[in-house]
Amino acid sequence: MEIIHDLSRKQFQTVADGKTAYVSYDLVDGCLNIEHTIVPREIEGRGIAAALEKAAYDYALDHDLLPAATCRYATVWLDRNPQYKNKVSSMK
């Protein structure tokens, strides 16, 4: 799966079966905060959301940004990935 980082839109995106899935984020106080995770119903259940989260948070760590989440899915993803847990900033 190819994931593209669209800096101008602050999104990580991928296309599957002609449908675009993405996570949108904002940069706040040294954190990359994922605000929304959008995967069209037609392509759900393929691990696309998880791959997008991982790409975004790997980017954050590579750029000395703390992973953060206001998106419910992103919060759950961070809870399930303990390698990011010690680097988490809560935006709630």
Automatic annotation (TrEMBL):
Pfam families reported for this sequence: Acetyltransf_CG (PF14542)
InterPro entries registered for this protein in UniProt: Acyl_CoA_acyltransferase, Gcn5-rel_NAT, GNAT_YJDJ
SUPFAM superfamilies from the UniProt entry: Acyl-CoA N-acyltransferases (Nat) (SSF55729)
Spans through the membrane: none
Domain N-acetyltransferase intervals: 4-89
Name of this chain's protein: N-acetyltransferase domain-containing protein
